[in-house]
Amino acid sequence: MTLSPNEEIFYEGGPASGDLVINLMAGITLIGLPFTFGAVVRALWVRYKITTRRISVTGGWLGRDKTQIVYSQIAEIRSIPRGLGAYGDMVLVLKDGARLEMRSLPNFRETESYILEKIEKSPTNKLDSNVQGFSN
Description:
Number of domains: 1
Largest sheet: 4 strands, antiparallel
Number of strands: 7
Oligomer: single chain
Strand content: 25-35%
Helix content: 25-40%
CATH topology: PH-domain like
Number of helices: 4
CATH class: Mainly Beta
Distance between the termini: 48 Å
Strand order of the largest sheet: 1-2-3-4
Structural class: alpha+beta
Shape: globular
Order of helices and strands: EHHEEEEEEHH
CATH architecture: Roll
């Protein structure tokens, strides 16, 4: 993804390293193995890029899936702290009902505040507010 001249990066990187450490320790037990595998896959192939104009998530097997959304598409943010509050999971609910999950996001409280600020400043889609149905 190339940045436009007005676009600045707020965060670029992978999931929190604490997520990997905690899940590697949990991998000692048989019950913790699935969580360990998930954390290793996230650490290897998931990358987040949050800029002044959009949010981009690269993930999936070998990092082949790419998702980009602009702030005007976001209807709601849901987040939960993990790792004793050092990192957290965030779900962005889009206006069309789709969801974008961002797991083990470092500094998620600051990121959530940043995204909420950008949502409030994003221009609303004026086409949606002026749409009228047919009348008989």
